[in-house]
């Protein structure tokens, strides 16, 4: 039987940060992970460069049934705290866009930094360790694992969520929550591409790889960034962002000309260059390939005519279609490619200060296993760092 003050299950972003935080306060800490290496999602994140935080992190960048839950931890360990840690380790980084910070070199720099910090505070990190059983005892918790039995006073569940099962994602955290009588809110894939009907896929065939700057809206929320046509459907940052707000059956509205009033623009062009055709005007903003395809699909009855021959009503129809395009996805690509999982352990069950389960003293939940999900752009890691740090300070 091996005894520790703290055992953390899951050596991902939140678990490693929690180990550093608790270890720095003199606690004996072991982190157990079933995978063959630690921080696999960190390694694959941000195209291998890890978008580790965002300059503009605010509570409004997170989705949760309880929008207030994330505030306390985010204010106690901010993006500036994590940036200081990165700078202490002399890891070169840069802002790519919109406050998103990436490593200049590779995501492994972040994993190495976390492991170095764990080692400095004496936290022991083990891989290849699967947990068979978790039991409550009068001394804390008893774990039965592939590396023997462990006893601890505090147990932290940092096993993440369901996205990318091939990377070791499991529903383990939800099972433990249910074992201890905690409510788990329904989960679904977030930050995930949309799939389309066979008809739409056929319509957009050949556009794979084409992108457009667009304002995408659904359920009262909008994001302005690129959309990307793929051979499976629609992706790109603004689609990934809106997917977290999309429910099956919803249509998303796409404005392909977010900077202008397209009707007024068409009217001006009609005056100034009356012989111009509609695809030419669209191609002044969109790529020629996209402009030609959309003209073919949506405006075939107008495509042979110069603008001079189009009525105001026709111009209005064109503008509305391009600026309020209603698209109904058939679904999403699901957990296979989703960056995050929405839903999870109900935050009402957990203290926002200590991350301890109210019904199970000594048991804590941090990171993505909780019902807190960030927007795209480094916010999910900031949540993992902040919740891990806050919990570690209270163990
Ligand atoms: C492709 C991709 C790219 C991403 N890019 C970014 C990005 O650039 N910026 C950003 O902010 N966020 C990004 N994310 C989201 C981010 O990776 C997660 O939100 C974050 O890793 C969650 O941290 P966590 O510690 O809660 O969980 P994880 O990092 O997933 O860690 C959970 C750990 O628990 C272990 N585990 C799971 N089940 C068990 C079990 N039964 N027994 C033992 N161990 C277990 C896993 O092996 C894993 O090591 C990305 C996600 C994906 C999938």
Strand fraction equals 25-35%
Number of helices: 13
Query: What is the helix content?
Result: 25-40%
Low confidence ranges: none
The main pleated sheet reads as: 8 strands, mixed
Q: What's the total count of β strands?
A: 22
- Helix-strand makeup class: alpha+beta
- The outline comes out as elongated
- Rg: 25 Å
Average pLDDT works out at 97
Bound small molecules, deduplicated: flavin-adenine dinucleotide
Key descriptive features of the protein:
alpha+beta; RsdA/BaiN/AoA(So)-like_dom; 395 residues; 22 strands; seven-stranded antiparallel β-sheet; RsdA/BaiN/AoA(So)_Rossmann
Task: Describe the model.
- The strands form five sheets. Strands 1, 2, 7, 8, 9, 10, 20 and 21 form an eight-stranded mixed beta sheet that branches.
- By secondary structure, the protein is of the alpha+beta class.
- It is built from 13 helices and 22 strands.
- Bound molecules: flavin-adenine dinucleotide (FAD).
- Flavin-adenine dinucleotide (FAD) binds at residues 9-15, 33-35, 40-41, 44-46, 50-51, 130-131, 158-160, 163-164, 168, 170, 172, 339-340, 367-368, 378-381, 384.
């Amino acid at each position: 039987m091996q005894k520790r003050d703290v055992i953390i299950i899951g050596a991902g972003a939140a678990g490693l940060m929690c180990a550093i935080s608790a270890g720095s306060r003199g606690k004996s800490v072991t982190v157990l992970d079933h995978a063959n290496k630690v921080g696999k999602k960190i390694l694959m994140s941000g195209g291998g460069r890890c978008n580790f935080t965002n300059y503009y992190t605010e509570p409004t960048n997170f989705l949760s049934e309880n929008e207030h839950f994330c505030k306390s931890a985010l204010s106690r360990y901010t993006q500036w705290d994590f940036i200081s840690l990165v700078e202490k380790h002399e890891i070169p980084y840069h802002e790519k866009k919109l406050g998103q910070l990436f490593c200049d070199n590779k995501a492994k720099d972040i994993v190495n930094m976390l492991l170095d910090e764990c080692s400095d505070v004496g936290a022991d990190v083990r891989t290849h360790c699967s947990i068979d059983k978790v039991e409550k005892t009068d001394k804390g918790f008893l774990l039965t694992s592939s590396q023997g039995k462990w006893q601890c006073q505090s147990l932290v569940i940092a096993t993440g969520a369901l996205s990318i099962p091939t990377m070791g994602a499991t529903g383990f955290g939800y099972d433990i929550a249910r074992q201890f009588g905690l409510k788990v809110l329904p989960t679904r894939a977030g930050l995930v591409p949309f799939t389309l009907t066979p008809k739409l896929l056929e319509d957009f065939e050949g556009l794979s790889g084409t992108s457009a700057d667009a304002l995408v809206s659904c359920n009262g929320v909008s994001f302005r960034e690129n959309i990307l046509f793929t051979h499976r459907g629609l992706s790109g940052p603004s689609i990934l962002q809106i997917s977290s707000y999309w429910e099956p059956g919803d249509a998303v509205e796409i404005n392909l000309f977010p900077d202008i009033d397209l009707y007024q623009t068409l009217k001006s062009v009609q005056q100034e260059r009356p012989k111009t055709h509609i695809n030419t005007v669209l191609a002044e903003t969109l790529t020629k390939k996209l402009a030609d395809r959309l003209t073919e699909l949506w405006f075939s009855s107008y495509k042979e005519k110069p603008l001079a021959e189009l009525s105001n009503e026709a111009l209005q129809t064109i503008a509305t279609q391009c600026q309020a395009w209603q698209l109904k996805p058939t679904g999403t690509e699901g957990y296979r490619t989703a960056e995050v999982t929405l839903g999870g352990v109900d935050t009402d069950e957990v203290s926002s200060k200590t991350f301890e389960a109210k019904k199970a003293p000594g048991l804590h939940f941090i990171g993505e296993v909780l019902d807190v999900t960030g927007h795209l752009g480094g916010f999910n890691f900031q949540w993992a760092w902040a919740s891990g740090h806050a919990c570690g300070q209270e163990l």
